[in-house]
Amino acid sequence: MNSRYYKAGYIFIVILLLAFAVFEVKAATMEELQAQIEQCQTIKDTAHTMADCARILGYEEDHIIIQTAKARWMEAYTAELNLSQKIADMENIWTGPKLTRSKGVNWGPSGKETYYNLPMQGVINIMRRMGYNEFDYPYWVREDGCKMLGPYILAAGNLHHWPRGTIVESSLGWVIIADTGNLEWSQLDLAVSW
Q: pTM of the prediction?
């Protein structure tokens, strides 16, 4: 490739790098949180474009430009998850009793709640096939032991009442129906590591 194209490409990548804002999670209102989530999405898109441009120019995956883009994408993604959790916490107005390991059964905002601890790979595979990709909806375990798909707690429910992908409020936060079992009509069975 012509060195002029390399220089032009390098300049373009540097401009993209400069377009990154230093992101800090700091908001009090729902509108501010939503605006910061949009900023995170812009940073992720810019990072993706930056890495793609570097690859087109022939840079290897271990080049500092691509590594920087990946790091920025991950920072923005982590911030986006934190912001989504803050929104979920703000929206979760349930002030009643919460499901715990020792309680076993709880009556939450949507009805009866129980919990289970099984391997989740099969459930995750189903959700991936439904379009919940690993970048926007990674599988992780929250500090309190809830098994998560992006910002949502994984839960089993009666699929005749709540189809897969339905978002439902629980005593521990918002859940996504991803599994099923022999459950009552409005029962939620939350996936946990307890």
A: 0.58
